[in-house]
Design brief:
heterodimer, A: about 350 residues, alpha+beta, 20 strands, about 20% helix, elongated, B: about 525 residues, mainly alpha, 28 helices, globular
Chain lengths: ~350, ~525
């Protein structure tokens, strides 16, 4: 069962079409990342889900209840959706305890409310900080209080808006793993927004890539990385080479060699026609002997990363194309300016090319 | 595609999200408030139409009107400019330098807001009987109203990001260049907002100019009303409306598209205080001079008048209790009403920004530039027409008049606090299962409560010292502190006038002090988000 379902969500701000039909399902108990470049409308999606904004068209369903069908909307307070904005947004005039207990109603059952607040504070590792005020906490602590506050009312889904973006790099990893841990222990269904592909791939069960106002692909991180369904998704997921090719009876011919095509999701590659081919950096073989390889070029950059080296090779005869990115063993000495040969190894992911890449 | 989309996130969904629809109830309430505020304008227009152009023309196009115009305009321009400079410098000294005793200065520099303008000018004329005309008016008014600039600028300086100044210094700007190009830029909107209030208050000032024998539109409107009835007074008022409009348009135009954006929401760093070093005695002397001129002179003169009058001021004291009671009775409800009425207008303009809500907000400022007499006459006119005159010279009408006249001051304060209370907090509160009204009660109101108190104080302070509307609308055989002061002052019983002035100040000092404290404690950004 899905805790959250979104179908055909559209939203425009005046002349600007931001969302053009979002479809997304978040299974109960999952940790889903909504990944997209900045400005892709991720926050708009969250705000519509939370009920701060209305959809122009489409439906949002929380735990089987339609909360927005493009015409009628359910008020935010009746949706059972927890929301943790970027900076936490703690109520500055309330102590940590009061913040966490805010959604509990308080008056009816004070003792139990208090116990629940204590429990939550312990869960986020802030036991004893109840009487403090938000401005007396660090950024990471504020974030965790905001999380406890959202969890207090046991929402059906928790939305996190770039939850770690405002933290510095060192704290970020620590806070992220804390938060993840808390959410998993609470068994909370979570949808979080991020523009950081590493963050999405490393921490989510499901990653939904938002490009051009649509969910281009939603899949488990491994699946997404191994079999992106479009060049846009592939490009957004990181340093990869997209090269032109031609389908040839189940294989694909490129400047880097004739390669096997990976058969994901049961679809056979077309027998013929132009192709866009994804060659991962680790699939490129760089040799010191240019003559033996199908493509020659010159090393224009080499980034030493310890156990391997990422080299960029500018191919000969095609100076305007982006350099090819290859990942080679760390003990290889490939200085900038070295002439090298490049060859690819299959199987690769390839799509029919119906437009420019 | 990508370039346009990037803009959306930067403007922030909160700003755009609400734009498509204005909530009906809120818009209707705001429209009703604004409609009420434009009644005086409607009254003036109706009257002008009735009078007819042939009658209007000789009043408008005569040498005397031109000289009034010149008097009013040059005074407004010069005093507003002086107030902007003094208010900004004083605020900068208190908020951003290591000025010794800055807590004391913070209170002393605000306190003149509690001293009625006519008391300041009364004190000055006692001290220097020759003081009159343009120089006198500039001197007195500058020191009577500069706190209207000081207060918002100090608050704004407190909230501004100190890192911007540091960046400027690191980019090679000296301290003075940094002050001009960065600090003044940060508080530009506060300076403009304060100057707007100053200019409008100057346009509507009566008592101080009357004492100084300086003729402006407002003093002349009252004289015309007393001598020739409402019709020529109304005609002159139309010119004053034009001037107010011009002030509003000028302020709007210089506002421009600039906005203050904070890029580091979590930075909770207090501002760095500049070392005054050798400039310290100069800065101290400057503050002392301002306080001496604004507070020392009126206080000193009142005390010396009281001492000289001794027992002879007793006859005036007989009606003191009743005057205090009536003053509070009329001013306090006006403070409450104006503040409550400002809430919907502020919410609409901040939470649902649109052309319409901006128009509402701006339109409501117009009333501040109108002399009390015009508002009083308008209320009399409409109550006679539609309520059969039943409210004429009743407490209700007087309270309504005060509420209308000083509504813009309440709006300024309420709006500032709403702007401080982030909309995101309200959203989070709702996502936690609380209804709109609960959120208002538990989250928004506690956060803006100080602003509501300030709105009340400002309106109360001004209503306390209102003269012309009070003289027209006051219920028969009652007196307020200001009407009593005025009666004694006009008839030359200065000792007894001083007694009333002292009581007015005594009554005004508490809210005035509260104002200073509020601005002094205004939370820095770090603790509000």
């Amino acid at each position: 069962m899905n805790a959250l379902e979104v179908a055909g969500l559209e939203k425009r701000f005046d002349a600007l079409e931001v969302l053009r039909g979002i479809d997304l399902a978040v299974p109960v108990g999952s940790f889903t990342a909504l990944l997209g470049p900045s400005g892709s409308g991720k926050t708009t999606v969250l705000r519509i889900l939370a009920g701060f904004d209305r959809a122009d068209r489409g439906t949002v369903t929380v735990e089987g209840t339609v909360v927005d069908d493009g015409q009628r909307v359910l008020a935010p307070e009746r949706r059972r959706i927890g929301y943790v904005p970027q900076e936490g947004a703690l109520f500055p005039h309330m102590s940590v305890e009061k913040n966490v207990g805010f959604g509990l109603g308080g008056r009816r059952d004070r003792a139990r409310g208090k116990a629940r607040v204590g429990e939550l504070l312990e869960m986020v590792g802030l036991a004893g900080l109840g009487p403090r005020y938000p401005h007396q906490l660090s950024g990471g602590q504020q974030q965790r209080v905001a999380l406890a506050r959202a969890l207090a009312v046991s929402p059906g889904v928790i939305l996190l808006d770039e939850p770690f973006a405002s933290l510095d790099a060192e704290m970020r990893a620590a806070v992220r793993s804390d938060v993840l841990d808390v959410l998993r222990r609470a068994g909370a269904t979570t949808l979080f927004v991020t523009h950081d592909q590493d963050e999405a791939l490393s921490s989510a069960d499901q990653v939904a890539v938002l490009v051009g106002g649509r969910i281009a692909q939603a899949a488990a991180p491994r699946e997404l990385y191994a079999r992106p369904t479009s060049p846009e998704v592939a490009r957004f997921l990181g340093a990869m080479n997209l090269v032109a090719g031609t389908f040839e009876a189940g294989r694909v011919r490129t400047d880097l060699g004739v390669l096997d095509v990976e058969r994901g999701q049961g679809t056979a590659p077309p027998a013929t026609g132009p192709a866009v081919v994804l060659v991962r950096p680790e699939q490129l073989e760089v040799s010191d002997d240019p003559a033996s390889a199908p493509r020659h070029g010159e090393v224009v950059a080499a980034e030493f990363l310890g156990h391997d080296v990422v080299v960029r090779v500018r191919a000969e005869g095609d100076p305007s194309a982006p350099p090819l990115v290859a990942r080679v063993a760390g003990n290889r000495l490939l200085a900038v300016g070295t002439r090298v040969g490049v060859r690819a190894e299959g199987p690769v992911v390839a799509w029919p090319r119906d437009r420019e890449i | 595609m990508t370039t346009t989309e990037v803009r959306v996130e930067r403007i922030g969904p909160a700003a755009l999200a609400q734009r498509p629809r204005l909530p009906f109830g809120l818009t209707a309430t705001t429209a009703a408030v604004v409609a009420l505020l434009t009644l005086p304008l409607v009254f003036l227009i109706l009257q002008a139409v009735q009078t007819g152009w042939s009658q209007l023309r000789p009043v408008l196009f005569r040498q005397f009107t031109v000289s009034l115009l010149w008097n009013t305009v040059r005074l407004t321009v010069v005093v507003t400019a002086l107030c902007a400079v003094i208010g900004t410098l004083a605020a900068w000294l208190v908020e951003r330098t290591d000025l010794p005793g800055r807590r004391l200065w913070a209170v002393l520099l605000v306190l003149p807001i509690a001293v009625p303008d006519f008391v300041v000018s009364f004190g000055w004329v006692q001290l220097a009987p020759g003081l009159s005309g343009f120089p006198g008016a500039v001197l007195v008014m500058t020191f009577a109203v500069y706190p209207f600039v000081y207060l918002p600028v100090a608050a704004s300086l407190r909230r501004a990001d100190p890192a911007e100044e540091e960046v400027a210094r690191s980019l090679g700007l000296g301290p003075i260049a940094t002050f001009w190009r960065v600090t003044v830029g940060q508080v530009r909107l506060a300076i403009l907002g304060g100057s707007l209030i100053v200019a409008l208050v100057l346009l509507a000032e009566y008592g101080a100019f009357e004492i100084l024998r300086y003729r402006t539109f407002t003093t002349e409107i009252y004289t015309e009303y007393l001598n020739f009835g409402p019709s020529t007074a109304g005609t002159l008022s139309l010119v004053l409306v034009m001037l107010s409009l011009a002030v509003l348009v000028a302020e709007g135009a210089s506002r421009g598209g600039g906005r203050v954006a904070r890029t580091a929401p979590m930075a909770a760093r207090p501002p760095v205080r500049h070392q005054l070093g050798r400039g310290r005695p100069v800065a101290l002397a400057g503050c002392a001079v301002v306080v001496a001129l604004a507070l020392g002179v009126p206080f000193g003169e009142i005390v010396s008048l009281l001492a000289r009058a001794g027992r002879s001021s007793l006859p005036g004291a007989a009606s003191l209790g009743s005057a205090v009671w009536h003053t509070v009775l009329y001013s306090a409800p006006a403070g409450v009403i104006a503040t409550l009425a400002a809430i919907p207008v502020a919410v609409l303009s901040l939470r649902h920004p649109s052309r319409l809500s901006r128009l509402f907000e701006k339109g409501s400022y117009l009333v501040l530039g109108l002399p009390g007499i015009v508002i009083a006459l308008a209320l009399v006119f409409f109550s006679e027409r539609y309520l059969a005159g039943s409210l004429y010279q009743s407490a209700v009408l007087l309270v309504v008049a005060y509420s209308m006249m000083f509504f813009p001051l309440a709006l300024v304060a309420v709006r500032a606090s709403f702007a401080q209370s982030p909309v995101r907090l309200e959203e989070v509160a709702r996502s936690l299962g609380r209804r709109r009204i609960e959120v208002l009660w538990w989250v928004t109101l506690p956060l803006i409560a100080p602003g509501l108190a300030v709105g009340f104080c400002l309106v109360f302070l001004e209503a306390l010292t209102e003269l012309t509307a009070t003289l027209v609308l006051i219920p028969p055989s009652t007196e307020t502190l200001s009407t009593q002061f005025w009666a004694f002052q006009t008839n030359g019983y200065y000792g007894q006038a001083a007694l009333y002035a002292a009581v007015i100040i005594g009554l005004a000092v508490i809210p005035g002090y509260a104002l200073g404290r509020w601005f002094d404690r205004l939370p820095s950004v770090g603790s509000t988000t």
